[in-house]
Amino acid sequence: MARWGKARAGAVGVVLALAVWFGVVSFGIDGRVAHAAPTEIVIGAVYPLTGPGAQVGLDAKMALETAAEVINGSYDLPVPLGKGGGLPHLGGAKIRLVFADHQSDPQKGRAEAERLITQEKVTALIGSYQSSVAATISQVADRYGVPYIAADNSSPSLNRNGLKWFFRPSAHDEMFTIAMFQFFKDMQGKTGKPVPSVSLVHEDTLFGTDSGNAQHKTADAAGIKVVADVKYRANSPSLTSEVQQLKAADGAVLMPSSYTSDAILLVKTMADLGYKPKAIVAQAAGFQEQAFFDAVGPAAEGIISRGSFSADLAPHRPAIKPVNELFRKKAGKDMNDNTAREFMALLVVGDAIDRAGSADLEKVREALVATDIPGEMTIMPWKRIKFDETGQNLDATPVLLQYVGGGWHTIWPFDLATQPPIWSVGQ
Amino acid sequence: MTAETLAQVVVSGLLTGMIYALIAAGLSLIFGLMDVVNFAHGEFLMTAMYATFVLYITLSIDPLFLLPMVAVFLFAIGVVVYRVLIVRALSVKVNSGMVQIFATFGLGIFLRGIAQFVFSPDFKSLRGTMLSDKTVSVLGVFMPLPQLAASLVCVVAFIGLWLLTTKTHFGRALEATREDSEAVALIGVDRHFIFAMGWGIGAATVGVAGVMLSTFYYISPGVGVTFALIAYVVVALGGFGSLPGALVAGLAIGLVEALTTLLIPPSLKQVGVFGLYLLVLFVRPRGLFGNL
Amino acid sequence: MATFSMPASLPAGLDLGERRRRRQALSGLVVLAILLVLPLGIGDVYVRNILILTLMYTALSQAWNILGGYCGQISLGHALYFGIGAYVSTLLFTKFGVPPMLGMVAAGFVAALIALVVSWPCFRLSGHYYAIATIVIAEIVYLLFLNWDWVGGALGINVPFRGESWVSFQFRTAKLPYYYAFLGLAAVLWLASYWIENSKWGFYWRAVKDNPIAAQSLGVRLFRSKMVAAAASAFFTGIGGSFYAQFVAYIDPDSMMNAQLSILICLPAVLGGIGTLWGPAVGAAVLIPLTEVTRSYIGGSGSGTDLILYGVLIMAVATLKPEGLTGLFRIDGRIKPAAAPATGPSGSTHAA
Fold it and tell me: Are A317 and A347 contained in the same domain?
């Protein structure tokens, strides 16, 4: 009977182990909730903090923390809540950020969003860099009735899922794409030379696929020939065959949609194979990351990228300089397209909560729907922030930037331009 | 499609194949020796790339001259991993293959975590090395200098490994240990020593691959994952443990991958590679050169 | 499970074996009873999510264990069957309006069918060749799905919410239905494993695993028995996939079919003890909460410490307790043949 006893002890052991595990887990949780002071508003941020894309997530953390500092601290910046001192209509309640790691995995994003909503009782969620992860987070947020602010997700399909709680202050890739082709048209007006053809190259996840589709459609509508539409596997060991195809097609403008790793490999491989298109007009993402410039060096010269932000817009937007200073102190680098959008996302939701005068979710949603922030109060080139019925801000005017002499310069729209574009297409 | 395009695709495919073969060589060696698939192989590669990065930044020595240093470093890692991890995983009586897979899988995750902890997840690149961003063009076919150099190193490495395993006393000890590790113990060969050396040499080989790769590829904690699956397929296609097999399989995979893109969308190019692998395997269940 | 107690077909005297089995049945009942009431006391959604994932990986790993553990065919491509299951029931629901409760049966059968097609050539391969082939096949299907527009491609499929219902297995925020569904699946698989351990098939498979040549000479129809194991394993994995699709309401190739998932499916069994009755459950109970909690509470720092911890845990088990965590509890005598001569002939590690 000795084994009998042992086995029973074993079974009991298993059960105990289980119980202890979950005990520990639930205890930890209760402890956390108890700490939440009533005078603070908790905002959840779901970003990739490990795995591919983690650097972007870490930068987002800095940007959001900078925004929280602007709201909570004592500054006087010409942005919503820029006076500091918390949220005035909530008795100066402070914003507290809670970060979660989605590891670039949609299902982990879903789980973390749910945790932040139910455990941390967040008043709103901000996310998430990868559009594929935003697809699950926004859905969970909608089911629970918590606003999701898509700070830097640019996939156009996101605001078309019929979600009530989805808000995107910045442009999506279709808007960016339309801007690119408008730019082509404007340049034709200036130089008299049309863009004869474009080559598309995009990665195979949600972002690249959506962007590639939008670009192909817009090109067709504009009557510009698409001579190559190359979809490649993200994080490929090699892109030589892909670049070879692009080289053979020889479109006048190359339009890539790539995250950082592939952007590096793509541009390096192009140099290796002696392929130099007349112009590169990129769907931002990897092409605006510091790691990309560090890697490719002079090959980045002359690249044009769409953007929502440019530091040289400072004369039009007085807040840019001081905000960038704050961010630089934290992160040791300048703000870029992504970090600027993340910064704005927190201000937008903070402003709405403040106007709602409470953390009641339905009221916050109503306040978000009623949002109307003039462009001058942002650090972006946007006309204003006002959401349509799908939660998209259609006034998020995109800009095009060109990388010249080691920095980005606004080249379009022409009235905001700080430099004339360097453009040789058609010549 | 012009002849020039085809020539470029073939040349690029072969150059890529050389890199695949070089990365897979160490994996093949370790497997041939002791029937262990190292699932942290990609992370060994990543470690070598970071080692190159650190040495290049701090000592300003060109990666080409760092080859011996990084190889020795990886050799040490290989020996330690064998002594600390693999020995224990091997001691299990049942399902030892599975336990080894997961011991090394855990090691891979651990190394990725360490890399992110130390270096942050950002992408690093070596700039301004003797090879970087240089390319030669012959009759309109472009051959990047870093890949050419890597191919050369690949050939040298394979010849070296082949000589080591077939022509030296140590190589014969390796071979004997692989045939019957119990029996060699009777004639005074310490099989743990031999196995540890095998792991050291295997890791040093992937160290060499890491140095060459870092002259033209970005470095990140996840970079090993990108190459690991290809390396397993190369080794299995060539036949586990066969060095010539790994070389031929690497070249074949590089070439097929490049040629596939002429027929199907590049996002599916690995389907061609994997399809080839399955096809060969169903005809020759032990790979091209496998006789284990 | 009418064949639940069919020791009649056993070849050897079962005094001690019979006692061991009764003991296991009892421990199974106790654990089931606890798990039935456990979530009622825990209202927290996060913890319930962890419980659901733990049960899911228990079930998936048990399904894997049928092929990988009992039959000894190390498949590293089970994400394929999981993904197929998820896609079949979801596509039937979104494209043809078939309720997921019916769709999941179809999902299981399609997954089993694919397992038969895949296994037919693959079982000619041995050891690592088989393992790598399973990875590669799963990867091919993953790439095809990623590029196949009809199944949503990289965009994936949003499972539309059509109101709370058991038939469509959809609930706005409730977690308990999914908890009990996965508990049911895990329980069925536990029973199946319990039955296999003492059945004709179980003996065949163990024989196949321990000594294929001898097993063949003893008249075990090697190939057929492996095919049955593959089909059964894939069937349950497919059903697990279709449950999961309803649970998360959004599927895409990256989260349903990637190679990492295949590893996660067998990892609990490896940690708990391969080819053991309790191995998958014990492994999942340790691994899944640890993964989730480290990501949630340490991963937020972004420094990679969660990966370091996770890796160390796996290495620690592999080196300190290579026969699996169940070795700590000694519920299964079978996995420690040296330590358990007392279990007699039913300690059939050397059945052949």
Answer: yes
Is A231–B267 a contact, with Cβ atoms under 8 angstroms apart?
yes
A226: domain CATH number is: 3.40.50.2300
Percent helix / strand / coil, chain B, rounded to 5: 75, 5, 20
Judgement on whether residues A76 and A140 belong to the same structural domain of the protein = yes
pLDDT at B173: 82
* Other CB atoms within 10 Å distance of the CB of residue B210: 31
CA pair distance B228, A156, nearest whole angstrom: 34
**Distance from the C133 Cα atom to the nearest Cα atom in chain B, whole angstroms:** 7
Does B283 lie at the interface with C, CB-CB under 8 angstroms?
A: no
Residues A235, A300, single domain; the answer is: yes
Which helix (H) or strand (E) covers residue C201, if one does?
helix C200-210
Q: Locate all alpha helices (DSSP H) within A146-205, ordered by sequence.
A: 173-191
In a domain, A276, yes or no: yes
ipTM of the complex, rounded to two decimals: 0.90
Nearest to C55 by CA among C150, C247, C184, C147: C184
Q: Which residues of chain A have pLDDT under 70?
A: 1-38, 427
Contacts for A359-366: CB closer than 8 Å, 24+ residues apart = A359/A41, A359/A90, A359/A123, A361/A123, A361/A145, A361/A146, A361/A147, A362/A145, A364/A123, A364/A124, A364/A147, A365/A145, A365/A147, A365/A164, A365/A165
Q: What would the two tokens of residue B23 be?
A: 């990365």
Low-confidence ranges of chain C (pLDDT < 50): 1-14, 331-352
Q: Are A167 and A45 within one domain?
A: yes
Subunits touching B (CB < 8 Å, at least 3 pairs)?
A: A, C
Contacts A50 to C, Cβ<8 Å: 295, 299, 302, 304, 306-307
| C-beta atoms of A51 and B121 within 8 A | yes
A425 located within any domain:
no
Q: How many structural domains comprise chain A?
A: 2
B268: nearest CB among C128, C136, C143: C143
Rounded CA separation C23/C287 (Å): 25
| A345 plus A392 within the same structural domain | yes
A108 touches chain C (CB under 8 A): yes
Token pair listed for B193: 């020593």
A282, A257: one domain: yes
- Buried-exposed string B91-128: b where 16+ CB fall within 10 A, e elsewhere: ebebbbbbbbbbbbbbbbbbbbbbbbbebbbbbbbbee
Which residue reads 């704050």 in tokens?
Answer: A326
pLDDT of residue C299: 66
For residue B136, the cross-strand partners are: B143
- For residue A88, cis peptide bond before it (omega within 30 degrees of 0): no
Whether residue B106 contacts residue C311, with contact meaning beta carbons closer than 8 Å, is answered with yes
Q: What is the pLDDT of residue B231?
A: 93
pTM listed for this prediction = 0.86
In this structure, are A247 and A187 located in the same domain? yes
Q: Are A15 and C26 inside 8 Å of each other by CB? A: no
pLDDT computed for residue A42 by the predictor: 95
Which band of pLDDT confidence, cut at 50, 70 and 90, is reported for residue B288? confident
Structural domain of residue A233, as residue ranges? Answer: 174-307+400-412
Burial degree of A1 (CB within 10 A; 0-12, 13-18, 19+) = exposed
Question: Do residue A232 and residue A298 come from a single domain?
Answer: yes
Pairing type for strands A94-101 and B135-138 reads: unpaired
Residue A66, in any domain of the structure: yes
The reported pLDDT for the residue numbered A36 is 39
Two structure tokens written together for C332? 């299964």
Partner-chain residue, chosen from C19, C153, C173, that has the shortest CB–CB distance to A143: C173
Reduce the DSSP state of residue A299 to 3 states and report it.
helix
Residue in the block written with tokens 């340790």 = C286
Chain A nearest C-alpha distance from C312 (Å): 17
- The secondary structure element, H or E, covering residue B269 is helix B269-283
- Any domain includes A293: yes
| Token pair in block for residue A179 | 């801007």
